[in-house]
Amino acid sequence: xxKDIDVLVIGSLNFDIVSKQERLPMIGETYVAKEMxxxxxxxxxxxxxxxxxxxxxxxxxxxxxxDAFGQSLKKSLIKYHVNVENLLITESTTGIGLVTALxxxxxxxxxxxxxxxxxxxxxxxxxxxxxSRAKIVCLQLEIPLASVDSAIRLAKRxxxxxxxxxxPATTIDNRxxxxxxxxxxxxxxxxxxxxxxxxxxxxxxxxxxxxxxxxVKNVIITLGSKGSYLFNSKNEEFIESIxxxxxxxxxxxxxxxxxxxxxxxxxxxxxxxxIFASKVSSKTVQGVGAQSSMPWLKDMK
Length: 301
Fold this sequence. Notes:
The two termini are about 35 Å apart. The model has no long low-confidence stretch (mean pLDDT about 95). About 35% of the residues lie in helices and about 25% in strands. It is globular and about 55 Å long. The strands form three sheets. Strands 4-1-9-10-11-12-13-14 form an eight-stranded mixed beta sheet, sandwiched between helices. By secondary structure, the protein is of the alpha/beta class. The chain contains ten helices and 14 strands.
């Protein structure tokens, strides 16, 4: 069967409620936010949107509740040309993300899993036909780990490239890591998996080598405004970030991953794919909200 899906994203969809404020409240304090914004989110949905906005044929496999939040998330994906034919509507509530965005662009987020945890291994297996059509399968860890396991194995059975965004940080069987083509994490997640405290530009190489030694073929660690680091058997590259005035970093990592997949499918080198991803995510952080701020391909010309 022809590989007519560029990217199959399997993961979470969350309705985000973003509070814009100068600082976090003290314990017991009622703090008044400057602004409250509602937006579509979830790591899976965000990565699918960025992929699609860059022109890749993108399909989303995930679940939302049969409620207003779920309807809103589905409409957002359709707006950005993501295929939602396999999106599940469940009786669970839609996943919710509560995000606090501070003046300096830093973000604090709490999520409620909701329907995301209805994406079972059986549902993954029942959609094997999608894997046979996909070039890249992109996963995160906001759905059950058993489902991620099933998806990775199905992807390899169907000759798909596998990208795993190891977020939120969760203990993963090393046997699964051997099946992943690209493992993408931020500095906090890299610290969790490598057991190296306070991963930064100074020790990112050490953390990346540790992750590589666990069986991952290609390791990418993002460091926010400080850049990103690529490590594999042939490459050891630090990619500088694009300096911009960040307004809201929500979805920046997801934007990076969507753009990285574009680079892969355009047959960029891995270094150039990371450079392009950095440029795209730098556009995203200059707006408020994740999906709406992510650039279209025409914005990158």
